[in-house]
Amino acid sequence: MHCCLSLGYSIGKDRQGDIDFQRILAVVDPNSTGYVHFDAFLDFMTRESTDTDTAEQVIDSFRILAGDKPYILPDELRRELPPDQAEYCIQRMPPYKGPNAVPGALDYMSFSTALYGESDL
């Protein structure tokens, strides 16, 4: 949800929310299976954010999920994201090695910059 809001989508319970939601579904679930694979969602987010979103905006979204910590825990990702998205992130985020690191902490900052080609992951 935070990702869609950062792109300017109003996914509320109103006419504009329905329009935006149907547009997104048509792209990420073109066969109307009722399931969205994370890779399809990631492709959508990458295409949609090419002109508007930045790694910093994605970092800000993860920062919100992480409660302002410089790292995120797998349990936080599993609580806040659909299972396939959470596991995708958990498998690809490097361990956080900064100050006050706790066991299992993940580095959402380097992961986000790598998604936008600003560094290598």
From TrEMBL:
Presence of the UniProt keyword Repeat in the record: yes
PROSITE patterns: EF_HAND_2 (PS50222)
InterPro entries in alphabetical order: EF-hand-dom_pair (IPR011992), EF-hand_Ca_insen (IPR014837), EF_hand_dom (IPR002048)
Gene Ontology MF, one: calcium ion binding
Domain of life of the source: Eukaryota
Domain EF-hand: from-to ranges: 16-51
Keywords: Actin-binding, Repeat
One Pfam family recorded for the sequence: EFhand_Ca_insen
Name of this chain's protein: EF-hand domain-containing protein
Source organism: Callosobruchus maculatus
